[in-house]
Automatic annotation (TrEMBL):
Belongs to the MnmA/TRMU family. It comes from Compostimonas suwonensis. Transmembrane segments: none annotated. The active site is at residues 95, 193. The gene is mnmA. GO terms for molecular function: ATP binding; tRNA binding; tRNA-uridine 2-sulfurtransferase activity. Keywords: ATP-binding, Cytoplasm, Disulfide bond, Nucleotide-binding, RNA-binding, Transferase, tRNA processing, tRNA-binding. This is tRNA-specific 2-thiouridylase MnmA. It is an enzyme of class 2 (transferase). Pfam families: tRNA_Me_trans (PF03054), tRNA_Me_trans_C (PF20258), tRNA_Me_trans_M (PF20259). ATP binds at residues 26, 119. Residues 277-356 form the tRNA-specific 2-thiouridylase MnmA-like C-terminal domain. HAMAP family: tRNA_thiouridyl_MnmA. GO terms for cellular component: cytoplasm. The record marks 120, 340 as: Interaction with tRNA.
């Protein structure tokens, strides 16, 4: 129970369904000032108090479990390491993967519970053979299946999402008000909870340090300098501080971050179009494709609120013995960075996900951006 309206209603519905329910709030920091508060947080002291008030109304036992050390190691330190390696991580994905459905679920099962129920908007469907599948929620605008794409088959077997069939968030808020929950109109949490002031660049500089490096164009020409490659993300436009304008007078965008050389590569917006993505850190949410080594049609989503894009996917073996999930969208994805998560869908079902290791630009180096041939949809 995060202290928000969704988890409060989910807990109440689980009780109504006849389950023996215990409310658990996760303490993710021993220093309250290091987590965002109010509408921008999700696991602060005030949130734990909101959760307890809801648990009291429902009439269930309530506990606060200290997962601060695990959160620091598996989410915060991972976030720093990924940025230091030139990737753009999604800490909410890591939190769902390693805290809520790994650490929390492990402890719950050890204590004799059958499942972890959360307020996520997603659905679990059981097929004719008894296999559990993760699907989108009925409310498309609030669907949160993307951030649950990291769940494995074993984790799905012990997961419950009581809000999955709810038509709208407004209905959940109305139900919360009827039940007398004080969080009925509490704003949704957002942004990174462990960066209190929202200054990701400054937060990283304190932990990674600063070092002057070069800003290059795609041909390797030096355009300017920066104070640390970790402060830049693919697709970024502002804050480049390049004195020399581009030949065409158009703005430049970050295309690549190279932490080993401490360089940042910039170029035209068109060069952000990506024709292929691939990752070796992939998992399946339920049964995998029957023949993953044979190309299959799917849809790919690269951000929580992005539209899915028709694509083809295949698992291939690479030189060092690893396997890689390669996804080719029907038309270019925009501004994709290594470290992001690509979630693969077949219809409404979440088939699996991959952390993106590499991307292939739709505009090769040396090609005039305006003359690029886009990759169009099939048929």
């Amino acid at each position: 129970m995060s202290g928000g309206v969704d988890s409060a209603v989910a807990a109440a519905r689980a009780v109504d369904a006849g389950h023996d329910v215990v409310g658990v709030h996760l303490a993710l920091s021993r220093m309250p000032g290091t987590l965002r508060t109010g509408s921008r947080g999700c696991c602060t002291i005030e949130d734990s108090m909101d959760a307890q008030r809801a648990a009291n109304i429902i009439g269930i036992p309530y506990y606060v479990w200290d997962f601060s050390e695990r959160f620091k190691l598996d989410v915060v330190d991972d976030f720093i390491a990924e940025y230091s390696a030139g990737r753009t991580p999604n800490p909410c994905m890591r939190c769902n993967e390693r805290i809520k459905f790994a650490a929390l679920l492990e402890k719950a099962l050890a204590l004799g519970f059958d499942a972890v129920a959360t307020g996520h908007y997603a659905s679990i469907v059981t097929d004719a053979a008894g296999n559990r599948e993760l699907h989108r929620a009925s409310a498309w605008a609030k669907d949160q299946s993307y951030v649950l794409g990291v769940l494995t088959t074993e984790q799905l077997a012990h997961a419950m999402f009581p809000l999955g069939a709810t038509p709208s968030k407004a209905e959940v808020r109305a139900e919360a008000a009827e039940r007398g929950f004080s969080v009925a109109n509490k704003p949704d949490s957002h942004d990174i909870c462990f960066i209190p002031d929202g200054d990701t660049r400054g937060w990283l500089a304190e932990r990674v340090g600063t070092a002057t490096g070069e800003i290059l164009d795609r041909e390797g020409n030096v355009l300017g300098t920066h104070e640390g490659a970790h402060a830049y993300t693919v697709g970024q436009r502002r804050g480049l501080s390049i004195g020399t304008p581009a030949d065409d007078g158009k703005p430049r965008f970050v295309l690549e971050v190279r932490p080993k050389e401490n360089t940042v590569v910039v170029g035209p917006k068109a060069a952000l179009d990506i024709a292929e993505i691939a990752g070796s850190r992939f998992t399946w949410a339920g049964l995998p494709p029957e023949h993953p080594e044979q190309e299959w049609e799917c849809e790919v989503q690269i951000r929580a609120h992005a539209d899915p894009v028709p694509a083809r996917a295949v698992v291939v073996s690479v030189a060092d013995g690893r396997q890689e999930l390669v996804i080719t969208p029907d038309y270019p994805l925009n501004g994709v960075a290594p470290g992001q998560t690509a979630v693969v869908y077949v219809g409404t079902r979440v088939l699996g996900q991959a952390t993106i290791d590499r991307t292939v630009s739709a505009v090769p180096v040396g090609t005039r951006a305006g003359g690029a041939v886009p990759v169009g949809p099939r048929g």
